Amino acid sequence: MNSRFVVSGLTLALSLAACGGDSTGPKGALSADESAELAMQLASTVQGSAATSAGAQMSRHVDGLNLSAAPVSLNLDTTVPCPLGGQTHLTLSVSGTVDQQAQTATLDLTGTNAPQDCGYHVKHVDVHVTGNPSLTQTAHVSVDHGQPVGAQTFTAGGGFSWSTNDGRSGSCTLDYTATANYTTNTVTVHGSVCGTTIDYSGPIAAPAV
User: Fold this and answer.
1) Which of 77, 128, 144, 167 has its CA 20 to 30 A from that of 105?
2) Which of 33-37, 79-83, 143-147 has the highest mean pLDDT?
3) What's 188's DSSP letter?
């Protein structure tokens, strides 16, 4: 099973919200666009790394059982590098059911993300973040024949400190839920990112390049 199904629709939800955000912000603070894109990249790191590692573990688990469909319960504890240096420590618990032959799965995930001087390129600046002490996240994923179905959800909470290469610094709190519903072909994001309220709803579509 392609482990990348975990990210489908979820980072898309935040990227679409970021495209509709306010491009300005208080002097010395992250703008709304920067905040939303940073949240998207943090979510992508968690989901992408967790999906790759968990997908490999799930494959071994299910193949070892020699069954076409099997319950899955596993824990992930790993440290991964960040795009512009630094690292983040991820913990993740995964439970659900996977059918390797039919390429279907229903999974629930909970875990933490503890960045340490973790660097990202956000809009036109480099941003490094460190957790206070960590972020929390949950996700629900459903896949049928390798394609996302129903509602895919991702929640994030917690806080971190940040600094940019153009001299800004501060602290940030995340508290949002992103949902991509493949039954209704809609995506929604509700909550707050670094003090910016996000209340977005629209069709699932690739963001403009």
Assistant:
1) 77
2) 79-83
3) E
